[in-house]
Design a protein that fits this description.
Length: 108
């Protein structure tokens, strides 16, 4: 019972200091963004006309965001600093929304 109370207090306190989790989340986001950048480069090299290649970019960001939420959930279950991973997921979801313009560019 005391462990759950401590975990609840830690969640509300908002004073997390976990450089290792921040570094892992940043590396995860960097890897997903790198894969999305390669997909953008392939899309532009193909003449910016293939809708399937254009849809890969938001798809990669969507799957990366879901993966970050999954890692955050696992971190929460183990008593770790899950909000760091939630922030990583929100960054990838925001990039997904921005990159949704690429398939419409290919349709024109």
């Amino acid at each position: 019972m005391d462990d759950k109370r401590e975990m609840g207090r830690r969640d509300v306190e908002k004073r997390w200091r976990d450089p290792r989790a921040i570094r892992h989340a940043a590396m995860y986001d960097g890897a997903v963004i790198g894969i999305a950048a390669v997909a953008v480069a392939v899309f532009l090299a193909a003449g910016a006309t293939d809708v399937v290649i254009a849809a890969l970019v938001p798809g990669v960001c969507l799957l990366g965001g879901i993966g970050a939420l999954w890692i955050g959930y696992r971190s929460y279950r183990h008593g770790g600093t899950w909000p760091i991973w939630q922030g990583a997921a929100w960054l990838l979801f925001a990039l997904m929304l921005v990159s949704l313009s690429l398939p419409t560019l290919a349709l024109r």
